[in-house]
Amino acid sequence: MSGHGDPLPMTALRGGPLRGVAEVPGDKSISHRALLLGALSVGETRITGLLEGQDVLDTARAMRAFGAEVTHGGPGEWAVNGVGVGGFAEPEDVIDCGNSGTGVRLIMGAMATSPITATFTGDASLRKRPMGRVTDPLALFGAASHGRAGGRLPMTVVGAAEPVPVRYAVPVASAQVKSAVLLAGLNAPGQTVVIEGAATRDHTERMLAGFGAEITAEDSAEGRVITLTGQPELGPQRIAVPCDPSSAAFPVCAALIVEGSDILVPGIGLNPTRAGLFTTLQEMGADLTFENRREEGGEPVADLRTRFSPAMKGIEVPPERAPTMIDEYPILSVVAAFAEGRTAMRGVKELRVKESDRIDAMARGLEACGVTVEEDEDTLIVHGLGPGGVPGGATCATHLDHRIAMSFLCAGMAAKKPVGIDDAAPISTSFPVFEPLMEALGARFSRGESA
Ligand code: S3P
């Protein structure tokens, strides 16, 4: 829901090694999509391992507002009785997507080809983020939208009464835009085609196929061409959500930089469109072992063992890898600060329009912790100080951004002096058990800005 309560300052102190098993919660991207596609199918979809973070809970509430029945069983267990493609009812009130760009953009897509009107809002972070990247292609289907200057929320979307299918080349590497167009294409007659220059996470395509839609993807000179046949009847599914690699990144990266650590993350999602961080860490010299590789719920998974890696070196992270690790640059920049030499992260300008301007947020916080950083519009360069070499001793601003908050707490676990954050509350959007999970591994936190 939009707005947070009082800020929750928190500090991480250097402690002993991190050891044990980290049961990381379900994947945020897959959780949103499971609720949405469940709501657009006819019959009861059963989900296990759903992420019960605020972002996903906000999407569950929104699906109820559009007419689906969404019920909570035990922990992570949810059932969705859907209304079918084209069956969304008009919500009676404003849809509040809280902090979630994925939630609002995918829901806008899903309702844009039904003859209903909905008004969307979110918290102070989401109200700053651009929605034009989604409403531009939705207009091609026949939907209208009216928002604040710059295409900002609150925004009203008037769905197309007689939608037409579209062919759309996505101008930015964005799975949210691609997914919004595909979800809109569900209720347009004929074939909707989306072309993406760089492959982004493909959970929507995989799940649409699982729910029975006719969808194909092929690589061409233009890029990846995805073709969806509209107005299918989607059948209910059983979905087991794998652990979120973007959340697992925090205990994994903390273990790499905290002396003596050795942890295991079971069942981590390793979809190749999400796994760029692990390739990067291995190039830096990280000690990662993938055990028991298998497939769960249509997604590749493995158990990941991570050990303290004092010999990590800075590298060039190539721009073409950015879509496969877009949410992991904040925590990578912390690892880079504890590696020897310079790590250059290029082609990352999309970070400027995430929950916060993540290049700016990481650069300012790392500098406050005594790390030398260079940045330009599309690049972040961190000059590493080696294992245990980061001075710390600062309080970092998190700008309502869960990943910035968790990144600086991880820095504090290995820095010479404690590292504080001004607000840990947003962590609950994606990783509500971060604090107890990290403490169980051996991390030391205190409530308040300085120890
Ligand atoms: C997401 C796509 C990415 C990512 C976000 C989740 C998704 O955003 O940053 O956390 O679930 O589709 P963009 O599509 O804006 O790159």
Describe this structure in words.
The structure is a single chain. This protein has 451 residues and is an alpha/beta fold. It folds into two domains: 10-26 and 242-447, UDP-n-acetylglucosamine1-carboxyvinyl-transferase, Chain, CATH 3.65.10; 28-227, Enolpyruvate transferase domain (UDP-n-acetylglucosamine1-carboxyvinyl-transferase, Chain). 28% of the residues lie in helices and 28% in strands. It is built from twelve helices and 24 strands. It has a four-stranded mixed beta sheet. A four-stranded mixed beta sheet has the order 2-15-17-16. Strands 4-5-3-14 form a four-stranded mixed beta sheet, with helices on one face. Helix 11 links the parallel strand 22 (395-396) and strand 23 (419-421). The longest helix is centred in the middle third of the chain and has 13 residues, at 245-257. The radius of gyration is 21 Å and the shape is globular. The mean pLDDT is 97.
Main traits of this protein?
single chain, 451 residues, alpha/beta, UDP-n-acetylglucosamine1-carboxyvinyl-transferase, Chain, four-stranded mixed sheet, 12 helices, globular, binds shikimate-3-phosphate
Unreliably modeled segments: none
Question: Structural class of the secondary elements?
Answer: alpha/beta
Distance between the termini: 31 Å
- Give the count of structural domains: 2
Which value, in Å, is the CA radius of gyration? 21 Å
The percentage helix is 25-40%
- Briefly note the CATH topology name of the largest domain: UDP-n-acetylglucosamine1-carboxyvinyl-transferase, Chain
Our count of helices gives 12
The number of E-state strands comes to 24
In CATH, the homologous superfamily of the largest domain goes by the name: Enolpyruvate transferase domain
Ligands present: shikimate-3-phosphate
CATH architecture of the largest domain: Alpha-beta prism
Strand order of the largest sheet: 22-23-1-24
Let me know the average pLDDT.
Answer: 97
Strand residue percentage: 25-35%
Shape: globular
CATH classification, class level of the largest domain = Alpha Beta
- Major sheet attributes: 4 strands, mixed
